[in-house]
């Protein structure tokens, strides 16, 4: 167990949130040295039961979002529970919550109410759609927001049905934006001496993920289409079958394309007017794909990916979750952390003097 201090040493966080976005925000802050107290309702965070698999009776889902926190349970619907929370907030810098809009206010714990007693408190709310507007106050879940924010409409095979992204990308980016908002508010507090209300909604964060599809729409008004693994703007930026496992080519400029063509033994392909520029390659992608599928048919995918990366052409084998987690570079980057029976993905944020530390397994 690391004993080094993090960038947020001395910051106390009360995390009232459940499910994903809020807890992920709290874990980010905890990884970087904040003292995070996770306060759960009497029945516990819902995700404790989101399994199998279970680890000593607790779902792996919960375990992936709640390390570096101490835990306790409070019934905030009771006056006694709220009194305990107010005591906790006496020394706190940050409050994270994701209750349905109006719930905290009903309990006398809304931002305006708490700010009178704790003017330096940064109050962070993760919500589905924000408090007002046509959808204000409604509950939001990742997959539903993926559908409504347009993400599903651009995810799926050509000619197929729109698909949910295979991980809770909206919840995760909402947690990241919540953590970023907290840090911005803490930085501003150094100047003003005052806390403020920070909100990260799933809906807003879902829309923020629409690049480049939103930028394309603003430019020409055309609806995005399902493109499978292919990028809508650049090519070849797609997965390709080989004589072995599939390979993903991520060729972003003319130099990389020329290097790839030379490596494949067809340098003249990079001089073909149909493929000589990024715009031409994107326009003529169907013909280029057919040519590359032919050239790669006898190649070993993983070996080819290594060869291309070595000469400066972005490429990768299409790995399973197990293969990615067990990859030698994953170990080299110290991206798997172990604490007793707990194993999780480490913080991707690398600081040279105050790195992330892993002090506490998720609360039992």
Automatic annotation (TrEMBL):
GO terms for molecular function: CoA-transferase activity. InterPro entries: CoA-transferase_III_domain (IPR050483), CoA-Trfase_fam_III (IPR003673), CoA-Trfase_III_dom3_sf (IPR044855), CoA-Trfase_III_dom_1_sf (IPR023606). The keyword Transferase applies. Keywords: Transferase. It holds the Pfam family CoA_transf_3. It comes from the Bacteria. The keyword Transferase applies. This is CoA transferase. It comes from Ramlibacter albus.
């Amino acid at each position: 167990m690391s004993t080094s201090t993090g960038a947020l040493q001395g910051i106390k966080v009360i995390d009232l949130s459940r499910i994903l976005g809020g807890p992920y925000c709290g874990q980010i802050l905890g990884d970087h040295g904040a003292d995070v107290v996770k306060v759960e309702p009497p029945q516990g965070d819902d995700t404790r039961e989101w399994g199998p698999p279970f680890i000593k009776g607790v779902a792996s889902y919960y375990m992936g979002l709640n390390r570096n926190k101490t835990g306790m349970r409070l019934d905030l619907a009771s006056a006694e529970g709220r009194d305990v929370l107010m005591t906790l907030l006496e020394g706190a810098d940050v409050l994270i919550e994701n209750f349905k809009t109006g719930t905290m206010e009903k309990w006398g714990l809304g931002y305006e109410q708490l700010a009178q007693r704790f003017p330096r408190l940064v109050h962070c709310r993760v919500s589905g759609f924000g408090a007002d507007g046509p959808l204000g106050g409604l509950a939001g879940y990742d997959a539903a927001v993926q559908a409504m924010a347009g993400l599903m409409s651009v995810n799926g095979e050509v000619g197929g049905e729109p698909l949910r992204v295979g991980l809770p990308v909206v919840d995760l980016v909402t947690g990241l934006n919540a953590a970023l908002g907290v840090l911005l508010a803490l930085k501003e507090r150094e100047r003003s001496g005052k806390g403020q209300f920070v909100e990260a909604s799933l809906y807003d964060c879902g829309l923020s993920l629409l690049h480049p599809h939103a930028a394309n729409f603003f430019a020409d008004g055309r609806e995005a289409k399902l493109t499978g693994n292919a990028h809508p703007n650049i090519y070849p930026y797609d997965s390709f079958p080989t004589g072995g496992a599939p390979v993903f080519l991520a060729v972003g400029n003319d130099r990389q394309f020329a290097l790839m063509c030379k490596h494949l033994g067809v340098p003249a392909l990079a001089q073909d007017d149909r493929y000589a520029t990024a715009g031409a390659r994107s326009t003529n992608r169907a013909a280029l794909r057919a040519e590359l599928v032919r050239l790669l048919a006898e190649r070993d995918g993983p070996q080819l990916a290594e060869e291309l990366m070595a000469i400066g052409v972005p490429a990768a084998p299409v790995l399973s979750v197990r293969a990615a987690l067990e990859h030698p570079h994953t170990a080299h980057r110290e991206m798997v952390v172990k604490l007793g029976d707990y194993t999780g993905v480490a913080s991707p944020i690398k600081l040279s003097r105050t790195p992330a530390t892993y002090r506490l397994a998720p609360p039992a």
